[in-house]
Specification:
Elements lengths: L1 H8 L3 H32 L8 H6 L16 E2 L6 E2 L26
Antiparallel strand pairs: 1-2
Helix pairs in contact: 1-2
Length: about 110
């Protein structure tokens, strides 16, 4: 990947460190997607509310409280079940998809 190549051989220390951080962010985004699926399955099978990491561990959905690649526990909304970076995570903010390009008239550019 581009970030992998930059992390391995970027022209400056800053480029290498930023690329490595971007790779950790991508890993965190993958983990968040997986954790959202686990929370959804837990709730669909009648898991208790509020949802907590401890409840998911006790029910056998997880082995331990999940942490991002930098070691900060992921946040879990107990009522919404939303998963995100934990408070103080050095990976925040995660990248987002840019909005679709639009013509001056406001119509989307394919």
């Amino acid at each position: 990947t581009l970030f992998g190549a930059l992390a391995a051989s970027g022209e400056s220390d800053w480029v290498r460190k930023d690329a490595a951080r971007r790779l950790r962010q991508l890993d965190a985004m993958d983990a968040i997607d997986e954790l959202r699926g686990i929370v959804t399955r837990y709730r669909e099978r009648g898991g208790s509310t509020p949802v907590t990491w401890q409840a998911l561990v006790r029910a056998g959905y997880l082995r331990a409280i999940p942490a991002d690649p930098d070691g900060v526990a992921y946040a879990l909304g107990p009522w919404s079940g939303e998963v995100g970076l934990g408070e103080g995570s050095t990976l925040a903010p995660l990248p987002t998809e840019p909005p679709p390009a639009r013509h001056a008239s406001g119509t989307a550019i394919p």
